[in-house]
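I'm stuck. Please check this protein.
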Amino acid sequence: MEKRNLTTYDLCDLQDYFKKTFHDSPDLYFYEMKRDQLSILFVYMKNLVDTNVLNQSILPTIIDKTTENYLDMQDLIYQLPTTQSKLTEDMDEMIHKLLDGYVLLITPKAEKCLLINVSKKVERSLEKAETESLVFGPKISFTESLSTNISIIRQNIISEDLCTEKMAVGKKNETEIRIVYLKGMAEEGIVQSLRDKINSLQVNDILDTSVLAQLIEDNSYSIFPQFVQTELPDRVTYSVERGMVAVFVDRSPMVMLGPSSLFNFFESTEDVYMRWNMGSFIRFLRYVTMFLSVILTPAYVAIITYHYEMIPSTLLVSLGESRSKVPFTPIFEALLLEVMIELLREAGARLPTKVGQTMGIVGGIVLGQAAVEAGFTSNILIIVVALSALGSFTAPSYLMGTAVRVMRFPILILAGIWGGIGISIGLCFILIHLLRLTSMGVPYLKPIYPFDKTHAINTIFRMPIHLIRKNPNKEGFFSFRKEVSQDIDE
């Protein structure tokens, strides 16, 4: 029936067709307006249409342009108070536009149907970022509306070189995707590779940006995220201006940035807003604490189990007294406490904000004290596990923090089996994996591997603003004061 011409059906047949297509949905609404010998059928989904606009603006215009037995739809397009109207004879397009908030205007024996956009978008207002909280800088976050998110970026990057390419993915539920980049800054090969990956997707629906990232990343089996995901417009602006590509997904408040290296997950726009020496200290502190978060608890287990000769004699006495009432082996004791910390963390994240904060603080204190008094664990291990947990919170990226939390468990098991050798084996496997990992074809450890001196320094530390180059993609992230002075003179 979809392939046949619209003129072969009367209005009753069309109503039956739409009812059958939408399985007699109660949201599907038909309104037939008669003007002497002319009948006009309006078809729309009630919960997707702004009825105030339809009744107050669209219908009066149509009535004024309707004669006793004729309605010129081509002329009506220019009279309607909306710029998003078109004629079509494609039945599939009619179905798609109905689901997008359009009103179908059909007259008997007409060759084409008039589509009028009267959609009512349900979206939340701009709010403060919750996932990535900042002390300095803009606090606004993206929303689930794609048009709103693109407009924010357009306001932040006022340049004719800003490209926003539109794509669609999904067989059953088509989702709009936008690729955003700066022409001349982003490498065309990377942009084309991203286009090809998105076009090759054969899925029914894209629920969120994180789902799209998992579908197009280079290694879907890796525990490490290969795309930075952020809800902060200023971070997207900062990244796009430096040659990265942003991907927006409709109905998702998160934006995907790539290609991303391991070090991008430890960077924050707050580093730029702070003075360079403070920003450098905090960024370097993140690297140290994340590394300690991975090895601190395994190192405790390895030393207590196999390498107790490394413990100073004064500390060995207190360790012995602390563990004298613990009936479990160090590996079981550490795993028990780590699992307890993860349970508290997940419970606090899933509960309402105020209740979750109370659960995390009170639960940690009560359970930790009770575990020590009951002889399940030692005081020193509680300190070690608490420091490891705090270290994983320092990453600005929630995905990277979660990866570090998960990565700690296999290394902890290796430490319980082989001690320090087990930790070395685990770290070597992680390093080899990172060396082989790529993000959109770019090495994951860039600029450390392959080594690039100019980029590497500004990656580990936040260099002063006057030493940062204008075009980091071609010239490097920073240069000497003399070169910058030459650029200014030119």
User: Anything to note?
Assistant: Residues 368 and 382 are 7 Å apart (CA to CA). Residues 470-490 have pLDDT under 50 and may be disordered.
